[in-house]
Structure formats: C-alpha cells, structure tokens
Amino acid sequence: MPDFELEIALWQKGYNLICGVDEAGRGPLAGPVCAAAVILPEGCQIEGLDDSKKLTEKKREALFDEITGAAICYSIAFAQAEEIEKYNILEATMLAMKRAVEGLKIKPDYVLVDGSQTIKNLDLPCGAVIKGDSISCSIAAASILAKVSRDRLMMKLDKEYPEYNFKQHKGYGTKEHIELIKKYGPSKIHRKSFLTKIIAG
User: Fold this and answer.
1) Number of domains in the chain
2) Does 25 fall in a domain?
3) b/e string for 70-107 if b means 16 or more Cβ within 10 A?
4) 13 in a structural domain
5) Confidence at residue 201, expressed as pLDDT on a 0 to 100 scale
6) 198 CB-side CA count, 13 A
7) What is the rounded distance in angstroms from the CA atom of residue 133 to the CA atom of residue 44?
8) Mapping DSSP to helix (H, G, I), strand (E, B) and coil, where does residue 189 land?
9) What CATH number is given to the structural domain containing 21?
C-alpha cells in the first residue's frame, strides 16, 4: 500500500507543496491519454488509497470524491488521439502530465511523477518514481483521478460513437472492441498507429 514516506522526506527538506502525477490510458486503442496532478495536505488521511488498477470502479469513484475534497488543489488534462499519432504515446503522455501540472491553481514546490522519466520542460523540481502509484499516496491519488476522469470521458464518447461500445471497454483492445473496429472501421478517436495489425488482419 502507498504511504507518505517520500512526501515526508520532501516536507522535511522544506518542500511544502508536493504534487503527485500519474496517467491513465496509455494502452487503449481509442480515446485520449489522461493525466492528473494533485497536491495533498500534510497529515492527509484517505483510507483505501491505492494504485487505481487494484481498485474496483465503485471504490475508485468513491475515492475520487474523497481525494478532490481533501486536496489543496488538483488538475486533470488530456492528450488527444491526434496528438498520440503526431508524437507517440510516451511524448503524448508527458504532454498530458505537463498540462496537468501547469493547470494547478497553486504552483507546487516539488513534483513526484509515476514512472521512470520526469516531465520534460517543466520548470519545477521533479522526481520519477517507478511503480509510484504503489509507493506514494500523492501518486496513487493522481492515478485514481486520471483513471476515473478518463473512464467518465469514454462514457460520454460512447454516446457519440455508440457502435463501438466504449462504455464497456473504455477503448481498450478487448475481443469485442477489435471485432467492432473490423466491422465499422476506425473512428476519428481511434489511434490509427495502434490499429495497423488489426486492420491488416
């Protein structure tokens, strides 16, 4: 379970506002990648906080409300399918993360990022934490905000593109989704570079 050890070490060094950053949606065949940035207050206690992938949808939804209620501030940002195609999924993810941090109403003193790379061109002290959503409460909170925000967006996009049943799989490459792509062809929110083998097959 994640804890505040990393944050405590940074607080003790004089970094007062610690921001956790994570993403959701790097792997799907459709839709944007979403990033969240969140600053939790010192002494914050949110029971059940964990990597979003280890939680049920119902638990994530409940924690989303708890996190947004407890946070000093938070920000959600996206990089769209066209941007994933233009750059690549890693660059688009970093772009979404940068947008999320820059969207915070209060500037953080330090940024903890899930993964092996820090955010490029971010004018703030930054540290990368591998498996950060299982280690840091701030990153775990960001992972939940990103996952819930992306899932909610895919539910809305399901109404625009009902033939793909996005509400069920959220754009991930399930057997049903692949069959629907073969039947209807890709939509404008599909990541064409992710579909080359599927369309060829």
Assistant:
1) 1
2) yes
3) ebbbbbbbbbbbebbeeeebeebbbbbbbbbbeebeee
4) yes
5) 56
6) 21
7) 16
8) coil
9) 3.30.420.10
List beta partners, residue 126.
Answer: 111
Residue 115 Rama label (left phi>0; alpha psi -120 to 50; beta): left
pTM as predicted: 0.96
Residue 97 CA to residue 80 CA, distance in Å, equals: 13
User: How much is the pLDDT for 35?
Assistant: 99
Strand spans (E) along the chain: 18-24, 33-39, 73-79, 110-114, 126-129
- 3-state secondary structure at position 108: coil
Using CB atoms within 10 Å of the CB of residue 116, give its burial: 0 to 12 exposed, 13 to 18 middle, 19+ buried.
Answer: exposed
Query: Contact 149/75 with Cβ under 8 angstroms?
Result: no
Residue 194 lies in a domain: no
Task: Express each pLDDT in 152-190 by its tens digit.
Answer: 999 999 999 999 999 999 999 999 999 999 999 999 999
Which residues of the chain fall below pLDDT 70? 200-201
Q: For residue 136, tell me if it sits in a domain.
A: yes
